[in-house]
Design goal:
single chain; about 575 residues; alpha+beta; Dihydrolipoamide Transferase; Chloramphenicol Acetyltransferase; 6-stranded mixed beta sheet; about 25% helix
């Protein structure tokens, strides 16, 4: 029986996806677990594997094409199987309101569950077509059929992406079993089953992104076909609306739909198979993937294959000859002419989901909270000496950022208004101190949270920040690790940034921007000497923090940073 595969929701903010590369073509044999395609979301490019055995009969979305979540992606079935009813079913779905004008009245009268009847019956105008599915389902106890929808895994989550399915269709599932790993705009977390039964349907493929509350799977404790369960789900008036599907206009030409495959964007013209991460690393390090032997499935190149490969940063030649060759490669030869035509050009890059989420939330913060900024400059001489002495302890290492986090946490105890959150009716003064630490990742940033930071030691703060940074870049942070902050710190000092301002991470009332430590002439006891200073800027929400309140907090923070031994007391 043919299986209809739709564009999956691969992150909580994903609304559309791009097929960056098909690894199978129409007519290929497909086994469960084979990688069908690489799908690019707003956050990452992920491999999408098949959960079915059969032949790839139809590809609806070509490489490089953007399509909404739940759009028809492809169809897998038996070789030579008639799939016209599945294409018609996609066209007849009532969720696609914008396609009404393209569907004639005769098609609208066809049963919404064509998979339960033959294609000949579907083409008939017999009125029994509409009654047949209902009759067949009268004896089924649908109370024992559980429809699993995309869960809301964080307070800001609007959509989620299935990173990995840990169960496949046909598997028995027990309450508490892990069904899948779901990627949100902030982290990837395990999603467990709350029901016993057999997994009879998976509606979202790995790498696909769907909105919260959209159907992702069906578990049943009674003997029932997936088609019958879906027919019952689609017939329910409360069923969640799906996004517009992208349909193939010419299903009769499906054999040729993917015969022409775009070449990989590698240095060599040779066709290679590599994971998205491996491609990214190769592009950054100027590695020719055609010279690498892959250790992954079917010779696929993965990250570990590039770990020991010598590389040269792109656009940084190692010799004068390389410089000349590079210049010849990227600079067109133009013959001297009195009439040289100048033209404007540009590149357009699609905004991914993480960028869209950042744009939405920071715009809301900037335009809703009245920001103002307080900048100060502290002496860091004592902090430098303190860190050197602290790091002399065996197996102990802390950074200046750790010292700032700890000092802020203690200072917030004395200034609860800075540790507050605004709402329309009341202001919340938090007694607990949860400090969010901004961590840069590819295409954006996340803010993992150090809970009860004032009670943590410098060493434990260092360990947590390091762990958060590593897992943030691999999108392995849990939702509870990126929620609940009451104050935020953003540190760009390690990049040589002397001073900057940040946008408040709502619902917090303030965020501290930390610059670099600089050696400069300073006046001490009316004498000019060389000292080490650091600039900090506090962005405040004027609805909760007045200028005096923010200034007093910075004075307290100054005392702890300029005499860091006091944070240990």
């Amino acid at each position: 029986m043919a299986e209809v595969i739709k564009m999956p929701r691969l992150s909580d903010t994903m609304e559309e996806g791009v097929v960056s590369q098909w690894l199978k073509k129409v007519g290929d044999k497909v086994s469960e677990g084979d990688i069908l395609a690489e799908i690019e979301t707003d956050k990452a490019t992920m491999e999408f594997e098949s959960f079915y055995d059969g032949t790839l009969l139809h590809i609806a979305i070509e490489e490089g094409v953007t399509a909404d979540v739940d759009s028809l992606l492809c169809i897998i079935g038996d070789e030579g199987e008639d799939i016209s009813q599945h294409l018609n079913q996609t066209e007849d779905e009532p969720k696609q309101l914008d396609l009404v004008d393209q569907i004639n009245e005769q098609e609208e009268s066809v049963s919404l569950e064509p998979v339960l009847i033959s294609s000949e019956e579907q083409k008939s105008e017999n009125t029994q077509d509409e009654l047949a599915p209902t009759v067949q389902q009268n004896d089924i106890d649908f109370s024992k059929v559980e429809y699993i929808t995309m869960p809301r895994l964080s307070d800001t989550m609007e959509e989620g992406t299935i990173s990995t399915w840990l169960k496949k269709v046909g598997d028995e599932v027990k309450e508490g079993d892990i069904l899948a790993e779901i990627e949100t705009d902030k982290a990837t977390m395990e999603f467990e089953s709350f029901h016993d039964g057999k997994l009879i349907h998976i509606g979202v493929n790995e790498g696909e992104t769907v909105n919260v509350d959209e159907l992702i799977a069906i578990i049943s404790s009674v003997d029932i076909d997936a088609e019958q369960a879906l027919a019952n789900y689609n017939s329910e008036p409360a069923a969640p609306d799906a996004k517009e599907n992208t349909l193939s206009d010419t299903p009769t030409e499906i054999v040729d739909e993917t015969e022409s495959v775009e070449p990989d964007l590698n240095i060599s013209d040779k066709r290679v198979f590599a994971s998205p991460l491996a491609k990214k690393i190769a592009a950054e390090k100027n590695i020719d993937l055609s010279t690498i032997s892959g250790s992954g499935d079917n010779g696929r190149i993965i990250k570990s294959d590039l770990d020991n490969v010598d590389s040269t940063p792109i656009n940084e030649p190692t010799s004068d000859e390389d410089t000349e060759n590079t210049a010849q490669t990227i600079t067109p030869t133009i013959k001297p002419s009195a009439n040289i035509t100048k033209s404007e050009s540009f590149d357009e890059i699609d905004n991914n989901s993480m960028r869209k989420a950042i744009a939405k939330r920071l715009s809301q913060s900037k335009f809703s909270a009245p920001h103002y900024y307080l900048s100060v400059e502290f002496s860091m001489d004592n902090a430098i000496a303190f860190r050197e002495q602290y790091n002399s302890i065996p197996n102990t290492k802390i950074s200046f950022n750790d010292i700032v986090i700890k000092a802020c946490a203690i200072a917030l105890r004395e200034h609860p208004k800075v540790n507050s959150q605004w709402s329309d009716d009341k202001t919340r003064l938090n007694h607990h101190i949860h400090i969010g630490v901004a961590v840069g990742v590819e295409d954006g940033l996340v803010v993992p949270v150090i809970k009860f930071a004032d009670s943590e030691s410098l060493h434990s703060i260092n360990s947590m920040v390091r762990d958060f940074a590593v897992r943030a870049k691999s999108k392995k942070l849990r939702p509870d690790e990126i929620e609940g902050s009451t104050f935020t710190i953003s540190n760009l000092g390690m990049f040589g940034i002397n001073e900057f301002t940040s946008i408040i991470n709502q619902p917090n009332s303030a965020i501290l921007s930390v610059g670099s430590i600089r050696k400069k002439p300073v006046v001490i006891d009316d004498k000019i000497t060389i000292g080490n200073t650091m600039k900090l800027t506090l962005a405040c929400d004027h609805r909760t923090i007045d200028g005096v309140t923010g200034s007093l907090f910075l004075q307290t923070l100054k005392g702890y940073l300029e005499n860091p031994v006091t944070i240990l007391v």
